[in-house]
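Hey Z.,

So I finally got round to the guanosine-5'-monophosphate thing we talked about over coffee. Here's the setup:
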Amino acid sequence: MKGKVIIISAPSGCGKSTIIRAIMERGKVDLKFSVSATNRPPREGETDGVNYHFITTEEFQQAIADDRFVEYEEVYPGRYYGTLKSEIVERCERGETVVLDIDVKGGVRVKELFGRDALSIYIMPPSVEELRRRLEGRATDSAEAIDQRVSKAEFELGFAPRYDCRVINDQLDLAVEQTEAIILDFTCPQTFC
Ligand code: 5GP
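And the result:
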């Protein structure tokens, strides 16, 4: 395969999407974002075809039947997310680098499929306690929802050793620089890009 696949996963609240966006905006490395399909409704500010392909449950089932996914997961009960073959295959054939913002099970699956053509990066919170403090600081979730997110994060952190690299997001700008450097090293290792 000419192109490369960058897989980025993290427990929710660890800044994964912010880090991906920052690296794409800095433009030091040319990344194409793989727009996943999901049956969850768009949030405010999200655009169909940009953040996700927002589709119905029936359309999602049809896409499964048509074998259009590289992988898909029920990330939350009743909420499906899937990486479309069309988002990766042609771009990689053209030699482009595609970045995936994807949950831990999907991340491990894509790494298995693409092997050395893929680099998997796990964004970690400094600690579970710090993650809890951040979630409490956002004040958007009830205490019960925070407990659920923290125990889901503990489960998801169990996947971290299966990733190629781990970056601790203690300070956002540092985490962006470290993640960017890892991607640059993977995509053009022979030069100081
Ligand atoms: P959100 O609904 O907050 O945008 O995303 C929820 C979770 O689904 C995040 O962990 C995100 O990385 C994950 N996700 C997004 N797209 C995909 C995908 O195509 N496949 C899988 N397995 N997970 C995805």
